[in-house]
Queue: 2 jobs
Job 1
Amino acid sequence: MQLIPTLTNEGGPSTGAIEITEVNITGIDATLFSHNLTLPLVIGPGADKTLPLNFFPNDISGIKNANLQIVHNGANSPFIVPLTAILEEFIAPNYTIVARINAGGNSVTATDGNIDWEANTDSGAASGSSYSVNTGTIPGGTNTFLYENRHTSVPDYIDETTFNALYGKERYDATSGPEMEFKLPVPNGNYLVNIYTGNGYGPTNNIGARVFDISLENEIKGDDIDVVALFGGNGNVFNAGMLSYPVTVTDGELNILFEHIGIENPVLQAIEVIASTTANRSYFNNSHS
Ligand SMILES: [Ca+2]
Ligand SMILES: [Ca+2]
Ligand SMILES: [Ca+2]
């Protein structure tokens, strides 16, 4: 999951730009939060900048607290923003898995007693019983992600057999043509969208070599996602993880859009959509504005 606070420089032309030199995360649950920002970050007068933060929960439900400390050259430095996340247990009947797609691969029989993973073996426009996708390319080779190197974000119900079957094949979107979008007809309501992703391509297996955005329902949920920065790996070591975003659907169709930002291509290995009967929480508490 990602938190994307926006910082605004409310000063006028006479007060000049604000330069952020440090972004630190402190407090009891600081290790659950991280960022991949390139500093210093300069915000001009009247301008604003987003500050994407990563949040990877641990297995203990409850309230998670940390503080974001922003060191800058303005008057109120350091600026402290409290971060709060609430982890709820992920159990039926409050949660139901409504779609599973093995992007780029064959159907996979579930080993957790839940629904199976649908096939997605056609490049270009493709569809299955739960989804359609407008474009994308499936490479001929097979990825070599190691199960023992999986990021902590990969759920425990993904066993080694399932992991290998899902992550072995992928779907990416070339820069040409439209941006890749999955569409799933679903009843209106609250969902959690899990994107299983990792970089399995040698030439882009280092930080900064592949960066993309993910939007759900026309809202950026994953901003400047760099899967190597998030999940580790480099050279011949390929690590995989999972991104998880809450979303509310109000138009009968869940839209999952992968967008280029100019650094290589978006890539994914699987999608899982979970319906929640509990309301989506606001995971970010910003007492300043
Ligand atoms: Ca494209
Ligand atoms: Ca929609
Ligand atoms: Ca796959």
Note: Residues 281-289 have pLDDT under 50 and may be disordered.
Job 2
Amino acid sequence: MPSIPCPKCQANIEFNINEVLKAKTFTCSACKTVITLTYEDNKHTLDKAKKELDKLKDELGID
Ligand SMILES: [Zn+2]
């Protein structure tokens, strides 16, 4: 599961790429800060996460 640091307390917030693409909001489990992840704001993190996911899919042979 990819994750980003919470902007407030730096705790890792795990997210699902598909949910980010739908502009879902996420809540930090440590400090309850609600953040909205958007693809444009997190392009670098998401591209990296997506590459890892694609690689994993290749290895598992799933689509
Ligand atoms: Zn936090």
Note: The beta strands are 3-5, 12-14, 25-27, 34-36.
